């Protein structure tokens, strides 16, 4: 589960989408992904490690991301880097569309358009 | 890279990076690392969750569990070996017994398309066209008594007439009545078969060729031998095809060998040698039975009706030709034309099945019961075992292992146990299967004669293996599930602190108490069953048979084969009796063609068949009722077998006529005869006729009445007439009463008889006690087995109770110490411990009694001289069980009473 600082629970599918989206900018290792999500959400969403790694392995199994041990030049040490596959890109598009539909629907509930 | 290492490194990297970050934020390196680890949470659980996403996870985990389980089992070799051995024995024996049932009930005959085979039988209320008793009884059909054999003429008429609709073959087993002497091997079973026999059965030779119709002609000399006989007498040598064998002095050339496993169509009689039916003359007395239309004991008929054909039409066509054969040579008396029956024999003859069904099912039930007890025991052990491991289990639970994961682990352990048990068990079952024909023939000696080898082959068969698999799976589940569920229900804190299962207080767990109850119940049932059988066998032994089998010896002679002509045979028997009577140690000797306990001849002059009686003033209610059995006996017969002569006298030497063309018209009858035919009169003044009314009712004068003689205690003696033993072509049994053990006389008797006439073979020497015990062998075997199983069950239950209480005492040491410190006496403590056993054993007793009473119905047909609902036996069985339970409780109770309160309180 993705927990916000206020322990709000975000749907599991959302975590998958966030990971895919993060990897759109290039290959990253697990720790990077956490930090990236944390930074870009201004620390609202903190990824629980207990959820991140199972999610990464699950996505890999589905073929949406691939993993490789690669050298990190600055640290001179190998890390396991995840990168988006073509299938993963397509999936991201699907998930984004879905997300937009859902968030619009939620927005409609929360902030109804003024009646004419 | 190994996925586990990969994951490990990945997560470590994460923690490294995290702590680096905290160092950068200004924390001391060691504090930073601690914080990072804390922030990460449970490493084990994360790993577990990740593994969960791996698709092949279960394989991996299974391998892991199996590996772990194997290590655990190896750590406790004693426990593991016991458990595996128990399970192996259990599955092995059940599978072997199931294999027997399978072979008997579901395996079709080892022939081509067995479902097309039909056995022919006929019925008629007035079979005047048969010279009774020259016909074999047929199978029992609902409401109809049938005959199972045909005259050769009737067979040929049906075979040739019904060609278009069915293919009919004839076979005859002459059994022991007409022993066939093979010089090399002594006596063997010979089947006479028609030329198309092998064609009808669709059997291919293992070697050489089988018969064709051109072999089945008068003067034939072709013989086919069975695979078993080939191996036994020729060592499986291919050169056997150039060899000859000698049957009753005639030479036959071996032309082929039947395939292994072939036994004809009746598993009850397995041929060693098969010769064409046209050679039957060599076994018959004087006239050629093939030419005699009133001898209906020649052919058993088996036919093949193609599956697509109309069976009823085929039957009617054959029936028509059967009746046609009778019309060709009609009897003088009026008769009812026979109705023909087609009986499905694709699974062999029903007689085999009927005879073994009850004992084999009983055995199966008993063995399954034992397996359940053994399982309950292993389950009990596993419960105690896992309780001992409760700290380990609690620790693993605390470290984040899921409960289902742990249950799976524990189940893997028991599954591994039962799988190993199953593998060994199947091996054992196949080992037993090789012995099984001997075993089965021991189970039904009354039907087959204990010397006969029953050639049922238990080949590896999908159904048997499936059974073994299911048995293994069930034992695994029964043994494993309960303990596993139990073991993982621990109170974490208490378990880790105390190292014992504190959660459910000091009471014995429901689990192992339930196991004890189950064991007690089953043990009671088995002990009860053993008790019933034990009394049955005692009753059987104690039942008087009407004669004294001890110190009697039988030896058979067959003068016809030895070339003694008919006219001299009566004298031969008289001389033979005189010779053996003169042997030192022999107190009395006589002879008979149908002595008590002798094996019934199967065909030709069926010794047990009924002969119609015509007595003055007697009116039969049914035609069957007006019949009697008949036996020829030499003088002093009743004195020799020690049968009481109730009235009149028995045959003496002076009764023998000089000239046997005038058969002496004197008869001795048994009580059953007297009761039925000459009731209410002085039998010694009565006369009767044989052969049915109207016959001369004054043919035979009754000179004596003797006690009824039964072959088996369960038999009801029917009417029987004894006549003087005259010239007969049948084998005759010399009856010798000796002062000492009768077996010792065998060689002397043989020698004496050889000196007397070297050409007449003496054979089948047996002590009569042996014969009697053979008749009871099925009961004896069942009794022995049930006693063994009962003792095993009691032993297992005792171990179960001991284990439960022993564990209880260990667990409650401190509690007992406190009680003693507070003033409880040793007696109180003993009572405390025993009370724990009382409830489960009591429940077991109650259940066992209920099951016993329910099961008694099935035993009713097996017990003898008592009711299967015998309360006394049940009471004794209960007492035995309670005594065993007390004995098993004694040691734990004693140990509890000896607990030193001071040390117990310092126990931790």
The dominant shape of chain A is: elongated
Q: What class, by secondary structure content of chain A?
A: alpha+beta
Give, in spatial order, the strands making up the sheet with the most strands of chain A. Answer: 2-1-4
Helix count of chain A equals 4
Radius of gyration of chain A over all CA atoms, rounded: 16 Å
User: Could you list the spans of chain B in which at least 5 consecutive residues all have pLDDT below 50?
Assistant: 444-457, 499-508, 601-608
Number of strands of chain A: 6
SSE order of chain A: EEHEHEHEEH
> What coarse outline of chain B follows from CA principal-axis ratios?
elongated
β content of chain A, as a range?
A: 15-25%
Helix content of chain B: 40-55%
**Main sheet overview of chain B:** 10 strands, mixed
Mean pLDDT score of chain A: 80
Range of strand content of chain B: 5-15%
Largest sheet of chain A: 3 strands, antiparallel
Q: What is the first-to-last residue Cα distance of chain A?
A: 40 Å
- Assembly type: heterodimer
The total of beta strands of chain B comes to 25
Task: List its salient traits.
heterodimer, A: 116 residues, alpha+beta, 3-stranded antiparallel sheet, 4 helices, 6 strands, 53% helix, elongated, disordered N terminus, B: 908 residues, 10-stranded mixed sheet, 6-stranded mixed beta barrel, 26 helices
Account of the protein in words:
- The complex is a heterodimer of chains A (116) and B (908).
- Chain A is an alpha+beta fold.
- Chain A contains 4 helices and 6 strands.
- In chain A, helix 1 (12-23) crosses helix 4 (86-110).
- The longest helix of chain A is centred in the C-terminal third of the chain and has 25 residues, at 86-110.
- Residues 1-9 of chain A have low confidence and may be disordered.
- In chain B, strands 1, 4, 7, 8, 9, 10, 11, 12, 13 and 14 form a 10-stranded mixed beta sheet that branches. In chain B, strands 17-18-23-20-22-21 form a 6-stranded mixed beta barrel. Chain B has a 4-stranded antiparallel beta sheet with strand order 16-24-15-25.
- In chain B, a hairpin with a 2-residue loop joins strand 2 (137-141) and strand 3.
- The radius of gyration of chain B is 37 Å and the shape is elongated.
- Residues 444-457, 499-508 and 601-608 of chain B have low confidence and may be disordered.
- Chains A and B meet through helix 3 of A and helix 1 and helix 3 of B.
